[in-house]
Each structure stands twice: as structure tokens, then as C-alpha cells.
């Protein structure tokens, strides 16, 4: 046996076959993986009392807000957050569930139509099958409240970005923002100041749109006073 034939016989069986497309990750799966990575960075930052990790995640919000969708946020809500404890949270969780279900149905309809037209469906992994079956215990809200606050911030931003396309008749975004602000202030962790600042920004923005900014001035002044303190 020559060296050439020996090398051919030792060809790796795991090499992809020619003409077979490698399944691409669904955008919702990519979003979940990215947000879990952000949560790990926040957890490390809080544990080490180093604010740079949290600040890095907040600087990436413009990319994150374009990346997340109803499917990814509904998954993160279900896997990470504590059970709902208010009517406001019940309302936005219901909105997320409905939008995630609708998005999944649209994907299934597209696959069926492509098969009927004789086209091969796009090589994408279905979210329900590809999403992780579990998340690290140190990232769930019961163990890591700061991570839950970040996910709630992302949900608030998503609701604001998609307000015109959602049925929010039973939900006021100012109340969603107020619950987030209250939750962060109860945590009272300086390592989460960047998340707290973003929450206050969107809370102020929503009241400014409604013309009720004056009503929350006392809260804003108290928050400013706390932000200049050197200790928790």
C-alpha cells in the first residue's frame, strides 16, 4: 500500500459530505447564546466588583436590541426569571408568549409552503429543538438578581421598539419601567449602576412622551443623590 492510498484510507469520517449544507443557527438561537454570554460577563463583574464587565454589556445594547426577538426573550423569561409577582408582569409575559408562538407558526408555515412549491427548506435549526434545555444555575434570577434585572431591561426595550406592532391595551410601559427601577433600587448594588442608569433613562423617556416627566422628578433627584455616593 502506497503512502497516498494509506492517507486516503485514513480520511476522517466526520468530514462533511460535498453538497450537504451545514445547518445554520436560527437567529433566535444566536440571540439566546449572546444574551447568556452577556449574563456570564455581568455575573463575573458583580462577583469581582469590577464595573467594566457590566459597562461593556451596556455599550453593546444597540447590537443586542437588534438581535433579540420574541422567541429569545420568551425563552430567557421562562428559564431565568422568577415567577411573575404582579399584574404588570403577567401582562407583558402574556404578550411575549403570544408573539413567540406567532413567530414560531410563521416559520412552520414558510417551511410547508417551500415544500409544496418543490423547494428545499432553508437549512436552519428550529428554535424549539436548538434552544438549550437548561441554563447554568448561577445565572437564574433566584441566584443572581442582577442578571434578571438585565433581562427585564432588554424586555422593556423590546416592548418600546415594537410598541406599534403589539397589542398593549392591557399594559402601560411606564409601569413596566417603574417595576424595573424599583427592583434595581432594592438591589442597591453599585456594580449594576450602568443597568440602573439605563432603566432610569427609559423610565424618564416614557414619561416625557406622555408629558408627565414632572411627576417623577423626586425619584430622579433621589437617584442622582445616590449615584454620587462613594459607598453602597
From TrEMBL:
Keywords: Proteasome
Pfam family, one: TPR_PSMD3_N
GO cellular component: proteasome complex
Region (Disordered) residue spans: 1-27, 111-130
Ranges where the 26S proteasome non-ATPase regulatory subunit 3 N-terminal TPR repeats domain occurs: 36-232
Name of this protein: 26S proteasome non-ATPase regulatory subunit 3
Organism expressing this protein natively: Perkinsus olseni
Gene: PSMD3_3
Amino acid at each position: 500500500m502506497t503512502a497516498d492510498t494509506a492517507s486516503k484510507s485514513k480520511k476522517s469520517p466526520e468530514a462533511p459530505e460535498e453538497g450537504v449544507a451545514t445547518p445554520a443557527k436560527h437567529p433566535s438561537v444566536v440571540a439566546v447564546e449572546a444574551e447568556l454570554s452577556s449574563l456570564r460577563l455581568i455575573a463575573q463583574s458583580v462577583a469581582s466588583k469590577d464595573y467594566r464587565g457590566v459597562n461593556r454589556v451596556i455599550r453593546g445594547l444597540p447590537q443586542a436590541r437588534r438581535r433579540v426577538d420574541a422567541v429569545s426573550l420568551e425563552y430567557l423569561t421562562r428559564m431565568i426569571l422568577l415567577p411573575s409577582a404582579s399584574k404588570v408582569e403577567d401582562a407583558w409575559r402574556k404578550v411575549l408568549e403570544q408573539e413567540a408562538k406567532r413567530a414560531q407558526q410563521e416559520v412552520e408555515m414558510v417551511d410547508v409552503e417551500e415544500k409544496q412549491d418543490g423547494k428545499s427548506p432553508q437549512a436552519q435549526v428550529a428554535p424549539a429543538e436548538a434552544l438549550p434545555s437548561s441554563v447554568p444555575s448561577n445565572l437564574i434570577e433566584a441566584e443572581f438578581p442582577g442578571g434578571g434585572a438585565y433581562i427585564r431591561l432588554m424586555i422593556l426595550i423590546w416592548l418600546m421598539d415594537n410598541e406599534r406592532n403589539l397589542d398593549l391595551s392591557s399594559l402601560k410601559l411606564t409601569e413596566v419601567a417603574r417595576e424595573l427601577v424599583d427592583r434595581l433600587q432594592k438591589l442597591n448594588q453599585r456594580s449594576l449602576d450602568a443597568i440602573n442608569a439605563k432603566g432610569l433613562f427609559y423610565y424618564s423617556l416614557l414619561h416625557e412622551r406622555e408629558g408627565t416627566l414632572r411627576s417623577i422628578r423626586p425619584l430622579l433627584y433621589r437617584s442622582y443623590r445616590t449615584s454620587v455616593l462613594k459607598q453602597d
